[in-house]
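2024-03-11 09:14:02 INFO receiving multi-entity request
2024-03-11 09:14:02 INFO entity count = two
2024-03-11 09:14:03 INFO echoing inputs for audit
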Amino acid sequence: MSEAETTVEDDPNAPVRFMQQVISLDYVVRTSPMNRYFGRKLRDRQIVGHKCPSCGIVYVPPRGFCPICVVETSEADEVEISDKGIVTSWTVLTPIHYHGQTEREDYALASILLEGADGTIGQQRLVDVELDQIRMGMRVEAVWAEESDTERGGDVRGFGFGNAIAGFRATEGPDAPPEAYEKHTL
Amino acid sequence: MRPVSIVSFAQSGGRVDVEETETQMLYPVVSEAIERSGIPRQEIGFTCSGSADYLAGAPFAFVGNLEATGAWPPISESHVEMDGAWALYEAWVRLQHGDVDVALVFSSGISSRGNLREVLCLQNDPYYLMPLWADHVSLAALQARAYLDASGAKESDLAEVASRSRRNALSNPNALLSGEQGPDELLAEPYVVSPLRASDCPPVTDGAAAAILVAGDRAREVCDRPAWIRGIDHRIDPHYIGVRDLSRSESARVAAQHAGVGDAPVEVAELAAAFSHEELILREALGLGDEVEINPSGGALVSNPMMVSGLTRIGEAFRQINENGRHRAVGHAASGPCLQQNLVCVLEGD
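2024-03-11 09:21:47 INFO inference complete, emitting structure
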């Protein structure tokens, strides 16, 4: 150990170079009424969105308003969304074993453009897929969480999808053409 | 200086345990402020917001909050990790540039999702006070004790402030607390941290507010009684409270002087005094005599959404001119422990 790394624990007379300050803050995360409704639908394996009555953009999960047009949306604007879609972007993560990290193997998170939606949902786990075979335009479908998991449902995590969907797996069929995802960088 | 006025103001009102997202809470408030101004949304030349992500524990919430404004096509905007009163200050500076005439200011905070007595410890210096977890109520109590000792004021004087604030709040539907409780009744309460009782401390409050600022004569076209910003200034005391005389607020005094509070009689002042003794310290610092009505809304003592309370004080001062026919009003905002930072805004009608 070099002199610069000597700590007060090794030598009470050593100069103080660092102070460790462990901070823990607890928050009560509330799921908004809109997300609760979305979550109840997810429990029935239904994905719903709101279609803006002004511009026609479909938001999944619904926000209750269109941020482009600044108009409110409601159940009257509800549309059903497929649980199938395409990968528009992805990242392969190599887990670093920081405190609390339970992942051990490389895995992929992807942005998914569901059929019927205009925006992607981010950070969705890709399952049963070779990491070097992931492509933009790759067709995928949702793998729903087990019925026995009573906790599953939508919440503010996972882009509103919570843990209702275990991941997305590749399906048969040719990849979508670039026009299908060129407007979605994320 | 380019004359700038406030032409509209909207607020969510004091709330707690808000279930909506911060953006959903802001959406109707921002829309109401814009609609009241009668100015088309696309004519807003600058947008500035104030919030702190630590309150609700949601990183980058301030970015999502922009969705409440209609930020497409892309808008010119800025954010301060401060009370919305400082966002209003930045908007006022931006309007001085002369190339835009309309600004939107908004702020929001959902304090009830965390524990303020823990979260606000993080605003202290990281070496001496943070490791002690010196919470804002305890620090306020130190200031209250210093003030009582130096001024000769009594705890009953604090109770008078608390009692009047709750009584004033009876006519303010946006206040979280209100009631007809005399000073003696409040003095019978136990201490939270001596010498402060629960009625001397602000309630944990969620909320949002928004205002529209207009430069020049257009204000009179869109608003019957605009409130002109005749002076606005903010000053800060040293970060480490141990080097300050806590019995007074030098930064508030200097800010008031530069904003011109004493240049003409003040009819009414809305002070962001979150603790009862802070009102007494601020009255002295701003030079407000007994003839000045203080906090007709009930003030921050009855409804204190963090990051919103200061902008609300300026908004309430605006309402005194716009709705109640007053001519000269003062709005005040504070930030940090023990009135560390103070903003003073002098408003006048035509």
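2024-03-11 09:21:48 INFO post-check: Residues 22-37 of chain B form the longest helix (16 residues).
2024-03-11 09:21:48 INFO post-check: The longest strand of chain B covers residues 204-215.
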